[in-house]
Description:
The protein is an alpha+beta fold. It has one domain: Alpha-Beta Complex (Peptide Deformylase), CATH 3.90.45. The chain contains three helices and seven strands, in the order H-E-E-E-E-E-E-E-H-H. The strands form two sheets. The protein has a five-stranded antiparallel β-sheet with strand order 1-2-3-6-7, sandwiched between helices. A hairpin with a 7-residue loop joins strand 2 and strand 3 (67-77). The model has no long low-confidence stretch (mean pLDDT 97). Bound molecules: nickel (II) ion. Nickel (II) ion binds next to helix 2.
Amino acid sequence: MLEIVTYGDEALTKKAEPVREFGPEIAQLAADMLDSMRRGRGIGLAGPQVGRLFRLFVTQVDDDKPRVFINPEIVLTSQDEADYEEGCLSLPGLYVGVKRPAAVKMQAWNEKGRPFTTEADGLLARVMLHEYDHLDGILFIDRLSPAKRERALGQYLRMIRM
Length: 162
Ligand code: NI
């Protein structure tokens, strides 16, 4: 069972390493991450959030299929942005509006080592960009203005002390 680390854990601020070898181990990690994500009622989870500093994340948005993104690269993002309330399993209970590109095209490998390209908008694009950020040690609060970040973090820290 994978434990999801929360704000303050070093793993969340580090740049993750590419996955070098595909095989049963990485496939198992992806499956375990999907389990942990569902248990936490999340719609996305990235390697660093379970203390594995690999460039890998999983998503399952609404009635979409479960998706595994390994060594993802952003090919394209839309000029137009969307503002949407985000949360994160590593900052449980905090929800804040974050501006991001409304659509994204991403290239990655799946758990079987097969390359694919995904174009998405709406909630899936949002989750893909949020999870991709985790691979570079970026949290959603880091996408806010300094004043809003400070306020959001203060709110979170007060909440977890209760
Ligand atoms: Ni997150």
